[in-house]
Design goal:
6 helices, mainly alpha
Amino acid sequence: MSIGARRDQVSPLEPTRSEPQSSDGRSAADDRVSALPRTRMLDGEDALPLVARLELLEGENAQLREALVSRVVIEQAKGVLAERFGLEFDQAFDVLRRAARSNRMRIHALAAVVVSARTTPVEIQAVAVSVLRTDGAAASNGRNVVPR
């Protein structure tokens, strides 16, 4: 809230809420902000220091960027697996997820290997063949089951 603004007025500079809110009207961001140390402004109002707010926003920005990069690699791996095995995209994601879990790997790490390798990683091959057998995907679209 800007200096001199009343509590019942919304400043045009304040962003509108787009996060889901709990029954008491607080969002997850509100909870994170309220956990940070506060200082007293000259008018006696509690205010979050700008530096602390900036650090919080920079941290969230970094997390969102990392999630976006990770998601892009996973989407690329889904496309590669769909092409190599003749799978639908949801089946390709299932193969990626199962292979990562059964090999105790992070899905992003396995997706990066799929995207960068010219051949299908060993971790993926057995799971893909299993999915093809149970779903009958190879028979339904006439594609070869052997990965490239």
